[in-house]
Amino acid sequence: MNAFLGKIIKLSTDALNAFKKFPAAMLSALAFAVVTIIRINLDWPQQEPYNFLFNCLHLSLALGAIFSLAAITAAQTLYSKRKAFLLANLLGILAAVVTFLALYYFGGTDPVSTGYRYRVVSRLAAARVSAAMLVSFLLFVMLAGYPKDQSDFARSSFMTLKAFFVALIYGGTIMAGLSGVAGAVQALLYNAMSEKVYMYIGTLSGFLAFAIFVGYFPDFRRGVVDPRRQEAQQQPRFVAVLFSSIMVPIMTALTVVLLIWTVKSLVTGVAVPFSRLSSIATSYAIGGIWLHIMVTHHESNLAQFYRRFYPYAALVILAFEARALWIQLSASGLKTAEYWFIIIWILAVAGAVWLIVKKDKAHQPIVVLACVLAIFSVFPVIGYHALPVAFQVNRLQNLLVSQGMLKDGKLVPAATEPELSVRESITDAVVFLAASQDVELPSWFDRDLAYNETFKAKLGFEQAWPKPETPDIGGDYMATILHRPAGAVDISAYRWAVSSQENYGIEQNPVTINGDRGSYKIYWNIDPAYGIPTLRITLNDKEILNEDMNSYIDRIAGKYPPGRGVQPQVGNAEDMILKLETPEVKVLLVFNDIEISVDPRDDIIRHSLNLDALYLQEKPSLQQ
User: Fold this and answer.
1) Maximum distance among all alpha carbons in the chain?
2) Is the peptide bond before 147 cis (omega within 30 degrees of 0)?
3) Which alpha helices (DSSP H) does 22-81 contain, by range?
4) Which of 281, 293, 593, 597 is an S-S bond match for 610, by CB 3.0 to 4.6 Å?
5) Where are the beta strands (DSSP E) in 458-515?
């Protein structure tokens, strides 16, 4: 018990000392928490006009905290002078201020072009700040590995990982405990307690976790030997077993699978969707290098085998992945997924070569290259947002010119329908470009081409999508998702327009209409299990219509069968309406959206029919 209390006291002391060791980082984190509390305190209608300001503050303060860690560590390890320490803290604060000003004045989107009511931080601006945070963090880990007689990159990496999990455990425990106390107060003493209390607890717990994380690190001052450094860098027995005896065999097994795939691809070709291959390759490359670093100082036979085996196996696998990339580029050109694949591929190949040549001395060059690639990826012209768009614009332009569909800088509908492969390529490029942001597109390109109606009107044919070469085994979920097209519906034959109240399970809240024949009550009931609506209408409390939507759903599913990976599509206008008739009334149902989802594993089909309006016309009585 005394040992446990001592550990708690030590962690609390370390958290307080974080303000002394990294003042700029902790001030940024404290300001981040204050901004978060202000946002929590404001309800959404009040917060919306200031949302852009808050996001700019959050991003800039997060960067300020991480940049300060790197700058102060650099000052301590390289100079260890008070002036250098003060300058590093000032640089950290300056980084937060400059980032905020850059985001606020140059990082926002134009509400007119985006359709938002207010400015928001652009994806590119957020990505650039994220890249700066990644570079700052990697430099911090690298600088924490100095001096060489006390540490290296592998040891500082584990120390950082250890500090993160210690902070996560204690911060999570604090949050869970305080939330439990708040829950007891709400349940037993004050039922009207605001839910925001839990948000405040989460914010304060996060700040305390960051303080524990920063305070966990030893004294990095040059010429100081802190005995806590060895303790922080030392891998406990269970961690060594986890890395060497569990993760190394798992990574080795994955390597064997990928090597078998390389042999198979020589015989059958690359029969794996590129999106799946890229995700596996990225995980393997990053995870493999990270594990290689973690077991740098392990002496077990498995760890030594992995350190020798992984770089050579990785080069073989990466060579065949480059072949798959080339096939993908030949088919559809450079897009965002291919761009990131190339970035990771370059890092993995260079890392594997350096690990073979330099072994554990390769870690710093790998980190430096990762920083360079992160900065490269958000640069103008050559960044992830610009280079793929330039390739796809060129690809689309060549396709359109070859079909005589781009003349004098204007789109012209095709005189004759192009062959299927050309239509698929044009559709692919158009959809990618229409979704792109933070980049200027040619004057002849209309983002509304992503909609099938505009696409057909301007290009002369409907969008075409290639069939998958291999069945999708990534999941069994299938769906049909339809939207009603823009346009008018003739309702001249109907007297009343009804906005129904959706009722789940028990009938309630009918819409009442007083007509010439009496009082009509309209119920729109939805099966809570499967989402199938039923329309029930009574006249003077006598049921005159009771119709479920099963037959209509069958009609839609027959024309638009559910499929895997289905994108929302615009249905035919006539398919989005349903007419019903009885001797007493005529009814017209107009649907905005229809979704039919299928889960074959559980043999369950769920439905969602979003009714825009119900139109009703009373028929004259035979006695009239």
Assistant:
1) 107
2) yes
3) 23-41, 44-47, 51-78
4) 593
5) 478-483, 496-498, 502-504, 511-514
507 neighbors 501 (Cβ within 8 angstroms)? no
DSSP category for residue 108: B
Strands 533-539 and 542-548: antiparallel
The alpha helices in 521-589, defined as continuous H runs, are 550-559
Which residue reads 């000052």 in tokens? 75
pTM, entire model: 0.77
Q: How far is CA 107 from CA 97, 114, 326, in A?
A: 14, 14, 35
| Six-digit token string for 93 | 């604060």
Collapsing DSSP to helix, strand or coil, 594 comes out as strand
What are the percentages of helix, strand and coil residues in the chain, rounded to 5?
Answer: 60, 15, 25
Q: Which residue has the tokens 């640089």?
A: 91
pLDDT in tens, 333-391: 899 989 999 999 999 999 999 999 998 899 999 999 999 999 999 999 999 999 999 99
- Taking a C-beta distance cutoff of 8 angstroms, is the pair 400, 426 a contact? yes
Q: Give 242's contacts (C-beta < 8 A, 6+ positions apart).
A: none
Hey, CA dihedral for 531, 534, 535, 537, is it positive or negative? negative
d(C-alpha 412, C-alpha 458), whole Å: 7
**Dihedral angle of Cα 261, 265, 266, 268, to the nearest 10 degrees:** 130
**For the chain, how far is it from start to end, CA to CA, in angstroms?**
92
Q: How far apart are CA 246 and CA 241, in angstroms?
A: 7
CA–CA gap between residue 324 and residue 274 (Å, rounded): 8
Question: Using CB atoms within 10 A of its CB, is residue 449 exposed (0-12), middle (13-18) or buried (19+)?
Answer: buried
Question: What are 512-533's pLDDT values in tens digits?
Answer: 899 989 999 998 888 766 678 8
- DSSP code for 473: -
Q: Let me know how many helices (H) and strands (E) the chain has, helices first.
A: 20, 13
Q: Name the token pair of 43.
A: 């309800």
- Cβ-based neighbours of 14, under 8 Å, separated by 6 or more: 212, 215, 216
- In the beta sheet, which residues pair with residue 548? 534
Q: Is the dihedral of CA 384, 385, 388, 394 positive or negative?
A: negative
